[in-house]
Amino acid sequence: MNNKKYNIPEKITDLIFDFDKFISYIEEEKIVLTSKNHYLKRKDLHEINKIMSEPQKDVTKNNDQPRYVRLNLFYYLGLAGNLFRKRGSEEGKQVRLIINENIYNEFKNLNLVEKYFSLLKIFWVDTDWKKLQTGYYNDSPINTVSDVINIVANKANSKIKVPSGSRLIQLLYNWNAFLKYFEFFGLWEVVEGETEFKNSYKAEAIKTTDLGNKILNILNTERSIMEWNKHVSENDRKNDFTDMILNRYLSQFDEHKNKSQDRINKNDNNYENREEFFLPFVDLFFEYQVGKILSEKDIDFFKGNVIFKVELTKKMWIKVKLNGKHTLDDLHSIIQKAFKFDYYHLYAFFMDGKPWSDNCYNSPNDNRKPFADNVKIGELDLYKGKNFLYIYDFGDDWRFQVKVVDLENNKKELFSYY
User: Fold this and answer.
1) How far apart are alpha carbons 186 and 208 in whole angstroms?
2) Contact 264, 247 (CB under 8 A)
3) Structure-derived torsion over alpha carbons of residues 393, 396, 397, 401, reported in degrees to the nearest 10
4) N- or C-end of the chain: fewer Cβ atoms within 10 A?
5) Residue 78, SS3?
């Protein structure tokens, strides 16, 4: 076993110091997000970029959040790690970023390396990679991660070219911003090539390091992204072509196959019973040990009542009051009754407001989890002004805009949702 220890590289210290600056800015400023996508506004992006260790140069005051690659990463890490939350104003017309003080204080008390592996865990396990993707490309590269690591992380301190027509360039086709995200985490360095589109990235070559390869190989063998990331669906796991290709490519190595199967059996997709993410990395650095990382806390359950406005058209809408203990399937039932539907067809709630996105809860009669009758209203971290989409009957495609009009903390609990 290789017990080599490493000094903390500049890439990692820059990542942590920049993230601290990012959070401090949000804490000090009253951040109001854009109305459409709930992104950071341009003026805030411009100001935060100026205080980064290496300000991004190919941006202007007119660019939106996805163009600021490092800041886009930090935004989603903060949300996925519950370091800050979106909250509506009293009028419900603005959405703000509010620091979660308890979790932020816990993060501040970690040492440098513990902060690093906290952020790496949030990136690897808790963040929806489809949301992280930017620019021309929409898809997450999550299915190709294992293949890419196996090709790239075999040679330390090497410059691996990515020639046209190669297997590697095919695998990296839709990586785009993820090439930079891996670089920010000190996993490699990208030699960028020319691209046709703004806000897109292409690797002409990838420079590897001994430490970066060490972390990548541990992630690949002991923390497989397909097994550990919470946003990979069961169908994705069952149809993971990466494992199939990898096993075929490395079929001569029985040890690799055994380790891979042991890892799958050990993790078993049961997040609550898994070992701590950081354990394989405990003794990796000279200066610090990793004794803990940011703890995983569930969103506080909302016990009060939530008032929704459900709108088919501007002239056809209803208001619904539900308690936190009711489910989205209960909301579905009310809509069905109010609009005189027949309860016959499939439906889904798209919590990001985008039709057919993966951020959804599905009809219990569908074959795709998660199901609407298994999620309670109080678990959804709703806020005043939150909008989402309800679609009923995927053939006729009835679309309803659902808006959270108000939250009642101290009102008498509803015993019926009608």
Assistant:
1) 9
2) no
3) -90
4) N
5) helix
